[in-house]
Amino acid sequence: MITDNPQSQSNARTARQMLRAHRYGALSTLSKKFDGHPFGSITPYMVDHDGSLLILISGLAEHTKNILSDSRVSLITHDQNDPHIQTQGRVTLVGNATFDPERERCGKRYLRYFPEAQTYFEMADFNFFRIIPFAIRYIGGFGDIHWVKADNYRLPSYPLMSEENELIGEFDTEQRKALARSLGLAEAKEISLMGVDCDGFDLRVDGKTYRSDFAEVVLDAARARATILAQANKN
Question: Is 122 exposed, middle or buried (0-12, 13-18, 19+ CB in 10 A)?
């Protein structure tokens, strides 16, 4: 049983933000070939608006065969650039992976985050699976260890989910440059706004991804626009 505590909502958002800050994780599935033994693989993932994880995987892959046999999975991610593994934050999401039939809708957002996956997306063998969490293990460092209920972590439908594409299209070149400057990247040449969710936004700058978190949860495009522009105008 996972018990609540006074910091449950705060821990849930911090765990969600940590998952959003990274793009790859170690996916564990239950091996069909070896009678349920844990099987690990490195997998790109995208955190969708509601906090579920979206992965694009091949039917030939061992982890896909395992998922089709038993949907129970977990995925852990951490800051791969920090050598102090035991003291840094990390998140393990425990849930079930199921086939997502909305290929075009999933692909539109996923390919903004992983444009290099366009070739895989065009192959009929690759499909989207969505990992729906039922528990999250969040570790902020020594002594900062929490179980988080999925009910606290996952988000119900909110307006920004359907407004994101239009919002991204509204940001012109100068606004994107201003955002890059706010991140200390004044000399950037190629800048695109990849995604906006309730917790923050992502920029692709000269091929690298930069995450910027909102101070508070933002649920609609009008507030998201104002918050992003306020950050851009700080400099």
Answer: exposed
Mean pLDDT along residues 86-114: 94
How far, in whole angstroms, is CA 173 from its chain's centroid?
A: 25
Residue 57 tokens, joined: 């995987």
Instruction: Say which residue the tokens 């892959």 belong to.
Output: 61
The type of residue at 85 is I
Residue 186: its pLDDT value, please? 84
User: Class of the 160-232 domain?
Assistant: alpha beta
DSSP H or E segment with residue 226: helix 221-232
The pTM for the full model equals 0.91
**220: Cβ–Cβ under 8 A, 6 or more apart, which residues?**
158, 159, 160, 163
CATH of 8-153, one of 2.30.110.10, 3.40.50.11900, 2.120.10.30, 3.30.70.980: 2.30.110.10
Token reading at 81: 């650039």
For the chain, the structural domain boundaries read 8-153, 160-232
Check: CB of residue 161 under 8 Å from CB of residue 221: no
Helix (H) or strand (E) segment spanning residue 209: strand 208-213
Q: What is the DSSP letter of 156?
A: -
